[in-house]
Each structure stands twice: as structure tokens, then as C-alpha cells.
Design a protein that fits this description.
The complex is a heterodimer. By secondary structure, chain A is α/β, with parallel strands linked by helices. Chain A has 5 domains: about 120 residues, Ubiquitin-like (UB roll); about 140 residues, Alpha-Beta Plaits (2-Layer Sandwich); about 260 residues, Rossmann fold, CATH 3.40.50; about 180 residues, 3-Layer(aba) Sandwich (Dimethylsulfoxide Reductase, domain 2), CATH 3.40.228; about 110 residues, Barwin-like endoglucanases. Chain A contains 28 helices and 39 strands. Chain A starts with 19 loop residues before the first strand and ends in a 20-residue tail after the last strand. Chain B has one domain. The longest helix of chain B has 15 residues. Chain B is globular and about 25 Å long. The chains are: A alpha/beta, B mainly alpha. Chain B: This is Formate dehydrogenase subunit delta. Chain B: It comes from Kribbella antiqua. Chain B: InterPro entries: Formate_DH_dsu.
Amino acid sequence: MTLLKEPDFGTPARPGEATIDLTVDGVKVSVPPGTSVMRAAKHAGVDVPKLCATDNLEAFGSCRLCVVEIDGVRGTPASCTTPVADGMVVRTQNERLGKLRRGVMELYISDHPLDCLTCSANGDCELQDMAGVTGLREVRYGSGVEAGANHLDLPTDSSNPYFDFEASKCIACSRCVRACDEVQGTLALTIEGRGFDSKVAAGAGASFFDSDCVSCGACVQACPTATLQEKSVIELGMPTRSVVTTCAYCGVGCSFKAELRGDELVRMVPYKNGGANEGHSCVKGRFAFGYSSHPDRVLEPMMRDTIADEWRKVSWDEAISFTARRLREIQAEHGQGSIGAITSSRTTNEEVYAVQKMVRAVFGNNNVDTCARVCHSPTGYGLKQTFGESAGTQDFRSVEEADVILVIGANPTDGHPVFASRMKKRLRQGAKLIVADPRRIDLVRSPHIEAAHHLQLAPGTNVAVINAFAHVVVTEGLVDRSFVADRCEGFEQWEEFISRPEHSPEAAAEITGVPAEELRAAARLYATGGNAAIYYGLGVTEHSQGSTMVMGMANLAMATGNIGRRGVGVNPLRGQNNVQGSCDMGSFPHELPGYRHVSDDGVRDVYEQLWGTPLLNEPGLRIPNMFDAAIDGSFRALFVQGEDIAQSDPNTQHVFAALSSLELLVVQDLFVNETAKFAHVLLPGTSFLEKDGTFTNAERRINRVRPIMAPKTGKQEWQIICEIAQAMGYPMHYDSAAQIMDEIALTTPTFMGVSFRKLDEAGSIQWPCNLEHPDGTPIMHEDEFTRGKGRFMETVYVPTSERSTRRFPLILTTGRILSQYNVGAQTRRTANVAWHPEDVLELHPHDAEVRGISDGDMVALSSRVGRTNLRAKLSDRMPVGVCYTTFHHPVTGANVITTDNSDWATNCPEYKVTAVQVDLLTSPVAVESEREPVVAGGGL
Amino acid sequence: MSTLPSYVRLANDIAAQFAHRAPAEAATAVANHMKIAWDPRMKKALIAHVEAGAEDLDPVAALAAQQL
């Protein structure tokens, strides 16, 4: 494939029918009202010269290169800022216009370094292109010093790890500033000075690195010259070919053009036709791909007899035959249910499907679980109970039609930055925002955005808040009676339940710490403010009542009729790239692909016929149950696909004890991660740049993951699974990942119409994709819920058993930061460490002061289960009594602190509530000593 | 921190969600949840715990165990 250059229409598309007819250079064209002349010309096949215009930014009209003549219009208006009119006759090329454009170009070139041949943007420079297009042959003013005052001596800002700002090449078109404003919504850049002194600046005299810039890359992408340029392009040269693929970071699932020179990846450029991101990106997806070629990568299988031994490299044959033999031996000695596997949300649908098939058809049990257990398993449960489908209801674009946005337990600007940019755009347009979060996350107050309500609730009291919302809706006559009557069931019983005084805002205020009037006002806004959409994250699910809260949000959406159309809905922001997909693919121990229970004889029969083996009809072990069973001795061998449970799962001591108890631990990963330290076999995995398959994002969008290089390990991961299955005596074989998807489509009704071929044609598909919805389903539950009637569920608030005490007086909550991802295995191996070199403990200045702690001090963080040391960061974004840290660095090991408490329905850990104490560290304590494996409250 | 076996803690947690219902109704709801979500060895362990006296087990969870 050659380098993919997407067409640029100059200005954004306008919605509506193409009812305006005009003529451009003699070509008739019809476009929607509000379309610019420049865009209409492009539709007519006419490229109008331009520099300051690009079609993801509103027209600016500064460069004057796009001037045109219009019959009946005086002068030469800029085509980018001139809207079309019916019957308009436009000319884009004649001698007069050419002269004007050359005049403009002369001025630009007179103050521009003429180093085109050695410039990093040579061949990809719009200024260079326009010099050619306009026929520039001379610059009457001379160039550089001879032209007089100039900007050629301006210094280059190389502070950002990923791109340079070469100010001497800037033409002050403001595309970067506008991209930061309009696309990213950070407003970090500005034009400093006036007239000739105008120049792009990152904040008030700051370098890019020290500014508010979030390194999303939008400015780099927007720059028409080499002023903002990727360091990788400067170092390696312009790429020559592109492969469209999908980011392997968060659940937004951005599409990218991987741009290469030969087989070397030069840069990742967000793809305009990507359904999830539509041309935008964040610092991780855009720049943090270097881990894929990091020297820490394990590329050959390794084995050892005990975890005290050194690793030794072995052949694939030896690793696979050993793994298969030991799995069978352990089953023979300890029973069919003594082995199992954990799938990963970082792997493809096809790889996950292969693992769960291996467990069910080859291991002969249902002991398969996925890392979604520790993040969004309550979403699966709660939405299935209420709506009938374990998935979010909207596409991302839907937020553009929301009037009220309720963000609960999510921090989109850090966790889901590309979606956050969409959301912020809508908020800047006037949508109202309600944030329910103990922390004052950035969304609460940021440039041109201020939440109407910040409900700074006590950690662990989500259900009391959502019940109070519902109470207000029911008792103040705000129920959408028509919707409820037509579409739902169980309302009367729920209405009586939620109307009880214990659910009132006044009662909730006592529990949550949020004033009753604030709760009432927020509830009224949600119920009466127009289209109301809920977006939530792990601050909802990772609680002892995570599933209850999900059902509570579903209740609220149904009661107010905010479901089944654009601009509304209940939307989980998934943590990892393929959380949705790994759950869809039957990774849960009680569900076959498509969320169908293992006890369903009809569903099992489909697989039994196809796979030629009987399947168990009882649920298997979930991850926490596996740990308990390992310690008790009934679970002896575990296959872990691309997850680092030793770092990511709670109560590290308990996890260590479980992993140490296994007779066989097989880890498939890119690196020797924390879990691999307990492993006997390490099977090298493939990075997303090597994978062939699909990811499914938080909006149920199935995107293709295309390999840009052959697997560095020599095998795709699904091939390895097949070979283990074969070595265990089961004939499991696929010719390609596409063939696995064909099997998924054959057996899973929601994927019935999906194939690689269709994905390649359509770009992406949102499931359900079936006979009824052959092109997919952007918005779910439009006419009826998946289960028929939406079901109201009673949601009793039950306080968590994790309480602050005199010994542990603070509450710790955990989360993530923009530059790092999950356990950091990927991002720690990139330049992103420049922004977050270590996990820190954020705490309120009052809590710090009473402990004698100053900003930057090392502190000891201890809970009932463990202790670790980290640096304190004082922040009034935290309420008094609550502190916060991330879990990106193993040296900190935040999960040494977190407990075994979990969601009652799904066992999802209660990461968000841990009673802790923080002490100023006067003499360093060895963290490792606190992590010795101990059995803590486990046991089957 | 609790030293109860995890299945006892979890059973108590589930029972607490249905505590607003009448005991028999709540027990059925708890049992139904365990049937769809629990591995057989967890259910056997809970039944054995009940047979051994159900120490520290919510009465509704104990009733539910009898329906497994």
C-alpha cells in the first residue's frame, strides 16, 4: 500500500440534504446549506489553493490564498469563509486570482527558510505545495535576511519528547492553535504578540513540555509546514506507505494510519475515517508505540522448573509440548476443573475466542475469565439485568446531541481523552454538565467548561446518589410515563421502593456528604434538561455495589425516557482497548460468546455440534475464585494471556500467595511482567503492530487490527493456542484470523453479519450486526429493549464494609493518568515516563499538614492488608479525608494496599475504597518486605 | 480485615442486597444468583459451611444454600 493521503475539503461538512445548487469552474454541484464555497469546490473536483484551512477546523480566513470570484459579488472573497448560495457561479482560476495568490505566497516565502531539500517536511509540506500550485517563480522581496525583518532566528522548542516546534518555519496560520481549541479542547496554544510579532506560543512563555499541552498531536497534524514535526520523521524521514489499524490503548479504539518506511514504523497518524476518533488522537495512541520494539520484548519461549530458577530459552515445540503435557498431567491428578485460563482485553477478539474455546472444548471446564473481571464486569451484569444486553447503548458521536451530560466515576480527559474531546466540544456548545466524583477532575472546571453541579460524594456512596436522583424524578412528577408504560416492566414496584424516605436526597446527604438541595437540583436538571446522557467508568464499577450502581443508572435512564435515541443512554467508558470484545467473546466463566449462559442447552448444543465435544453446563471459576482455589489446592494450573494480574489485581499479597501455589503458570506476554515472576513457561506475545484481527471498543464498534509487520515471535497468538490444544489431543486449527471471525459469526447471533471482508469494506461495524441490522447498530434499544421490556431493579444502598477507622482514617481511591496506561507495561517503556515517572499519592493539604507532610515528601501508605511508600503530592482537588494514587508502576505497587472486598454480583474488586493511613516517611522501609506472600482471608 | 472464607463473605454480601425483601423471597433471589454465577465448588463449600453450623453466615444466605 502506498502512503494514504486523505482528501481535505478545507472546511467541515454541514449536516442536511444537498439542496444548494451552484457552479464552480463550470461544474455543477449540490451541497447542504452552510457549506463553504471551498468545500463545494472540492466536491466539484476543484482544489482551491489554501494554507490556513483544513476540514477538521472551522474556517478562519487568514491566509487569503483561497480567494475566488463569484458572479455578482464584489472583490475576491475567501472561499473558506464564504457560504454557498443557490445559483452561485464561482471561478477559482484566472489571471487575477493567480496574481493575488502569488502575491500572498511571495510574502510567506520572503520570511521562510528556503531549506526545502533538507527540510523534514520535504514532500509533505503544504507551503511547498502551494508554491507549486500558484506558479510562484520569483520573490520580489528576496528571502531571509535580504528581505528585511524576519523570524528566521527564532529558536526551536525541542522540549516535547515526541515533536519539535521549529518557530522559524511558522507561517502563523493558527491551524495549531485552532486544533488545540476546537479539536482537542485544551486551549494550550495561543498567538502571542500582534502584527509582525505574532507567533505561536504554548502558554505564557512556557515550553511545550511545561505548558498545558497534552501532546495529543492535533497541532502537529494540523501544521501545514515543518514547524510542528514528529521527531521520528525528523530522524527517519518521510514515511512511504500506510496501513490502517486500531490503537491498542484505551477503550475508545481510535483508528490510525501506521505510516512506515519499508518495514520501519515512522509515525501513527489518526485516521479521519475512523468511526471512533474521526481523525483525533491522544498522546498514547499517537506517540507511545515504541514499546513494541523495546529491547525488553521477549521474542522466544522460555521455561524453568521452578520460579526460583533462571529462565532458559526453548523452542516453540518444547514450550508447547511441555505446557500441554503438564496441563493434562495436572488434570489427571487433580481433576478436570483444576486448570483454567485468563484472557486479556489487550488481545484481539480472535485470540480471546481461541483461548475460551481451548478452555471449554479442550480443558473441558468453564474456568475462563478475563481482566474485565476487575473493571467492567458489573457493567455486563447490570445492563444485562435491566436492558438485556451487556453493552453501552450509544455510539460516541451521540454525545453531540446530548443536552445534559452526567459523568459518574469517570475521568475522561485522562482515561478516554479522544472521547473527552468530543464531550468537551459539546459542553463548549452549551450542554450542561453534572460530575459525580470525590475528586475535582479536570472536567469540573476547564477552559470554557464548568460543571453545573459537582457532586463530591464520599467514596463508596454512588448508589445513595443515584437512588436520590431517582427519588426526585419519581416524587416530583418527572417520570416519562409514556416511555415507561410502553417500554418497561416492574415500574410500579420500583416506584414504591424508590419513593421511600430512605432514598430521598435528604437521607442521601447524610450518607454521601452532598447537600440535599444540590442532589435535587442535579436530578431535576438530568430529568428536565433535554437529552440526558450518562457516561461512567470504573468509579462506578469498582465498588462493592458496582453492579447495583449500574442498574441504578439504567433505572434512572428508563424512568426519564433517556434511552433508545441519539443524545441519551447509559455509556460505560471501557478501560482497555478490547474490554468489550473480550467479554463479547465468551471470556466469562458463566457465559458463552454473546453473553449466553452456559446452562442454556440450545446454545451449548451449537458449540457441541461444531466443536465435537460435550460442554459443561455449570459456571467456572472467576479470577478471585481461581486465586482462592489455588491457595486451597483445588486449582493447580493457570494460563494467563497478556495480563499482569500480579500488578493489576487487588491485595497483592493474596495474589502472590495464589500464584506461588500453582504447579504450572503459563504466561503469554510481551515482557517478563510481574506475573511472569511466578511463571514456569513464558510464551512471547505479539504487539498490536503484529496482530491480525479485531478489537471492539466501548461503543461496540468492531475495528480491524492489521499487521504492519510479521510477528517478531514467528507466530500469531491464536496459532499458539491452537498448537497447545492440538498437543492436548484436540484438533483445533484455523488458517487465518478471518476464519476465526467466521466461526464467531456462525455461532454468535450478534456477530452474524460480521466478517473481515465486510469490515474492510465498511471500515467498522457496531454490533449487533445481523439480518435485522446488516450495517450494525449505532444506537441500541431504539424500538424495544434487547430483553423486550426494560426491567426496573430495586437498588438498595448497602454501605461497604471497608470503613475508615482511627487506625486507618483516610479513604484511598485509585485511578489512572493520561500519559500512562493500566499497569504501565507499555507506556513505561516509552518517553511517556517524562510526564509520570512514578506513582504519587495525592492528598488534601489539610490531611498533609496534620501529618507534617509537605509536597514531595516520601510517605508510607498503609492499609489493613499492606504497606507501600510513595511521594506525596498536595492537591485541593481531593476532598479532606480522601487520597488518590495510580497503579502504573510496579515499584510502588498500589495494589499492595487494596483489599479483597468486591462487588457482590461479579466479584469485581473494590479498588475505589480502601481505608488507609499516611505517615511521613523518615526512614525508608523496604516495600518488598511488605509483599511476602501471605494468605489473607481466602479459601474455598 | 475479615478472616472469613471468601465464599461466606460473598454470600453475606449478596444476602445484604436482598435484605429489604421477605426472608424466603430474598433467599430465592440469593440462590438464583449463586446458580448463575458460582462455580460448583463454591456452592459445595457454602453448603458444607451451612451443614457445619453456618457460623458467621447471614441467615438469608444460609436459607439460600439449602436451595442450591
